[in-house]
Amino acid sequence: xxxxxxxxxxxxxxxxxxxxxxxxxxxxxxxxxxxxxxxxxxxxxxxxxxxxxxxxxxxxxxxxxxxxxxxxxxxxxxxxxxxxxxxxxxxxxxxxxxxxxxxxxxxxxxxxxxxxxxxxxxxxxxxxxxxxxxxxxxxxxxxxxxxxxxxxxxxxxxxxxxxxxxxxxxxxxxxxxxxxxx
Length: 182
Ligand code: FES
Hints:
Elements: H1 22-26, H2 31-71, E1 76-80, E2 89-93, E3 101-106, E4 112-116, E5 127-129, E6 134-137, E7 142-145, E8 151-153, E9 162-168, E10 171-178
Antiparallel strand pairs: 1-10, 2-3, 3-4, 5-6, 6-7, 7-8, 9-10
The site of FE2/S2 (inorganic) cluster has 11 residues, from loops.
């Protein structure tokens, strides 16, 4: 088998391949040089692809971090437990007075749930149907699960944002907002 250097054409000016002008290096006429160039291009492609992938992963981490920071809201009393009967509900604003309306629902002696009140389809206000365990949007018959806020039927595809709650000293306290995409 030939040594690969035996397969190289001697350039017209007689200088070594490394001393040749750039255009002659980029468009080799010999197979060994051409394969070397192809490997080099392939490695460059792999490095660029890896860098793009890493940058994408980093962006998701940063976005996730920012979203969690955004969700760090102040705890705020929204009702006294005794003021909301079992099966009852009330509208409140959180975290500020000019925030969108939220809906608090008392499910039983112990449990409360709270969600944004606007339907994720076209923002009509949802209505609690506690016995059925559903939140109903009358505009286009959208139905959300009362325990999770996830869409069950109708046009809505995204869950309602959930207000996280705690019960402290006889008060229902809003502690944050959990935005979800699924
Ligand atoms: S706005 Fe709620 S289902 Fe369309």
